Amino acid sequence: MRMTFFGSKIYILLATALFVSSCSGTKEPPKPVYPIPTQSQIEWQKLETYAFVHFGLNTFNDMEWGFGNTSPETFNPQELDCEQWVRTMKAAGMKAVILTAKHHDGFCLWPTETTEYNISKSPYKNGNGDMVKELSEACRKYCLKFGLYLSPWDRNNPEYGRDGYRETYHGQINELSGNYGPLFEFWFDGANGGDGYYGGTNEVRKIDANTYYDYERARDTILKRNPDAMIFGGTVPTIRWVGNEGGWAGCTDWCPTCKDKFDNYSYMHYGSSEGTEWLPAEVDVSIRPGWFYHAREDHQVKSLARLMDIYYNSVGHNANLLLNFPVGLSGKIHPQDSTIIMEWHNALLGEFKDNLLKNAKAMADNVRGRRFSVSNLNDDKWDTYWATEDGITEGKVTFNFSKPTKLNRVVLQEYIPLGQRVSKFHLEGQNGKQQVEIISLDSTTTIGYKRIVRFKTVEVDKLVVCFDEAKGPLCVNNIEAYFAPALLTEPVIYRDFSNNVYITASDVDAAVYYTTDGSEPDLSSEIYRGEFVLDGKGIVKAVSVDTLTNKFSALSVKEFDLPYNHFAVIKPVDGVARLFDGNGYSTVSFPLNDAVICLEFKEEQNISGFRMLPAQGRDATGHATNYRFYVDNKLICEGMFDNIDNNPVEQVVEFAPVTGKRVKFVAERKLPKSSYIQIGDFSVITQ
Ligand code: FUL
What we know:
- The protein has 687 residues and is of the alpha+beta class.
- It folds into 4 domains: 39-351, Alpha-Beta Barrel (TIM Barrel); 361-482, Sandwich (Jelly Rolls), CATH 2.60.120; 492-560, Immunoglobulin-like (Sandwich); 564-686, Jelly Rolls, CATH 2.60.120.
- The strands form 7 sheets. It has an 8-stranded parallel beta sheet with strand order 7-4-3-2-1-12-11-8, sandwiched between helices. Strands 13, 14, 15, 16, 17, 18 and 19 form a 7-stranded antiparallel beta sheet that branches.
- A hairpin with a 4-residue loop joins strand 20 (492-495) and strand 21.
- The longest helix has 23 residues, at 2-24.
- The site of beta-L-fucopyranose has 6 residues, from loops.
């Protein structure tokens, strides 16, 4: 009896356990799909955006790659304020900052014992400064993580390329790892070996970066004191370079890849579904063309539209964004840079304000068990996720809205602790019985830690997320949807060499209204539907308008002079198209002693000035500093383009109208350091 009673108790317990497991989902999680990230890699990826600061001797010598011979005496910031940097970064939503403790020129921003070429030999704080310390303390004060860039290449060190420098380098890693932590990331740059000062030898030295630096030893030193630090570059990285400095990861972006195959760009840029190591991508890009500060780039700070694209193409493509601020000579982030970064952050806050799926009811066509229920997708918890049963590698999740709802962004996150799985997905919408097409701005392949899909606004009462292909059962921990307001930046207007005028708006939901008669565009003006021909002088005014709210952007105005087909170009003979194509990045190089543009109009004109756009490319040199301007061989005016090297913006010179047909513009360069003159664009102002 007793036995029977006992046996039936066991039976009841067993039956209860079985019932619970099938109904309340105590099923095991799906098996990991290898490789999988470490906990530190997961925490790193959650940072999403953080800042880079390039600051050092280069800043004070207007250089990008110092040769290694610049005097430490020149390093003298007057108002250095690391807290100002950190406050700006924090206010812009960034979670960390990485400082160039030493760039390729070899100058150390901390009082290292490994070389004399350091901050203690500069006038800064009478030789008592330590910028690594100052910034690390500011980070601690404002709760930002701190990381360091230490260039392996050292163009100052006499021992570079020999055993002596290797020891010096490891000494530097040791000092930085031990004295300023905890560090969240350590950056080894890829530029290695070449010409340099090298203690005065001024020679070329080459090394094999795979063996010379002993990165394994470096890693051990760093991780001993900073166990969670990510390592960028070198032979034992834990994150990977995305393969460009332009601010974009691929829309296919696998965290898994094979570092031994990095010679093949695709493994570095896209990662690989077959990858054997978990190496998530980091997108490093500067807010200006250069990494270091140059006054001449003050007009080239990236626009809001460009920075938004960078965000979507990095964080929105499963990569972290490392955005560089070239701190200026004073030692502060330039006001233009801090203004635009705050606009960027506020625009992002606006775009991701209300998650429309927060209270939406979700349904999935397959669920592994209650523990992996579809309600995990919008419960705001990182560690809960929806999963499908073993063998089920595709699936659909449907969100039902209580009423038709507008949306244009969807955020998706896989539960990466179990590996990255999805290789293809798409979105579908429905409004009543009507199918609504959702066309993503870029192809929808991988997801990973985070994928943000942008599309033209749709109105739906049902959103279906279709996972089409995966490397194992689906494990998705978050899906969000938003209706982002149109980004109303002023449109960009330009005319090409064939006299086609293009007007571009930064947002797919914005319509562009324009006029060519000088009046201000409004909703009754022409809508821009594609390029149009402007075969003469003219003024184009345009605005972007959010079609849903009728909000207007600021006004964009572009004045066009008589185009190329109204005159004959006598000089130069080559590259004419590049000079009259409305694009300062396509340029013509002239010999120093013969920088002449000579045109002859078909008919007499009242000529009242000219516009000259210097070359706009990164590190462009050879700008004209002086000019002479002739009409029908008579000198009309001459002068200087003030500060053009520092600020190569369009130069407009106007004078009282002169009647004539033949125009000669003679450019000169009276400053040293160039054997040519480069011009981006040129036009003549007529009445
Ligand atoms: C590059 C370097 O050569 C640049 O100067 C800059 O530091 C950038 C982040 O990496 O490879």
